[in-house]
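User: Can you recover a sequence for this backbone? Please restate the input before giving your answer.

Assistant: Of course. Working from this structure:
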């Protein structure tokens, strides 16, 4: 029996080798879905896939040809993508806009915006061709709505992701494809470990959060799973924050 005949939905999680992406991939795998994790780090993706019992696909989401090849492999080995979680993203540094290196801005824009667009385009094309509808869940950030000095470059890209979420929801609704977003505040992941290990920096973040703690990836996975489920069948174009109340402050 081929993998495509074993049941479950075909789920693609970008940036699935660690952090939020890995937690999301694990949740879908434990639910019985057929999961592929796409990551630019081939070794890390391979390790995570072996631990979770899922498919690893090496993809540079900033490159259209790499995305096309990765999505074709997922379709060949698991079937057409039915659920896409656009999780891959970077910060790549920080600093005031007046002194931020252009290279940093361009790199974050390429991964967070161009990458989200390219993978959404390829996965949605598979969904449309299959004719069974589908779901896209974009991992955004409350930074799209609440500025933090020194992170303007990153927050601008997440505002763009929110815009793509809303446009995708309108354009793909006629094909039975829903597009939603999850907007966390700070989350303790390998990407933020340096910040979280600094007591002063961590304390400053926690002081902004009414619930008083930094999120962990497991705080986000239930919402991602819900938005990808039939129970959310009438929800599209929404971007839901998971921030411990930070947007209230």
């Amino acid at each position: 029996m081929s993998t495509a005949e074993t049941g479950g939905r075909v789920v693609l999680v970008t940036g699935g080798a660690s952090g939020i992406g890995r937690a999301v991939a694990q949740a879908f795998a434990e639910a019985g879905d057929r999961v592929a994790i796409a990551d630019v780090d081939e070794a890390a993706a391979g390790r995570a896939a072996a631990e979770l019992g899922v498919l690893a696909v090496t993809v540079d989401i900033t490159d259209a040809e790499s995305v096309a090849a990765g999505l074709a492999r997922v379709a060949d080995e698991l079937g057409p993508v039915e659920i896409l979680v656009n999780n891959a993203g970077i910060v790549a540094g920080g600093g005031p806009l007046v002194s931020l290196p252009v290279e940093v801005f361009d790199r974050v824009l390429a991964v967070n915006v161009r990458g989200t667009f390219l993978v959404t385009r390829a996965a949605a094309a598979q969904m449309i061709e299959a004719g069974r509808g589908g779901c896209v869940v974009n991992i955004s950030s409350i930074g799209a709505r609440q500025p933090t000095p020194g992170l303007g470059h990153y927050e601008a890209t997440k505002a763009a992701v929110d815009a793509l979420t809303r446009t995708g929801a309108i354009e793909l609704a006629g094909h039975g494809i829903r597009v939603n977003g999850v907007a966390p505040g700070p989350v303790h992941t390998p990407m933020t470990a340096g910040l979280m290990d600094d007591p002063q920096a961590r304390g400053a973040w926690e002081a902004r959060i009414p619930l008083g703690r930094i999120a962990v990836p497991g705080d986000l996975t239930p919402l991602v799973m819900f938005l990808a489920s039939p129970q959310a069948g009438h929800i599209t174009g929404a971007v839901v924050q998971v921030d411990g109340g930070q947007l209230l402050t």
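That completes the design. The beta strands are 10-14, 34-39, 55-58, 83-86, 134-139, 177-184, 239-242.
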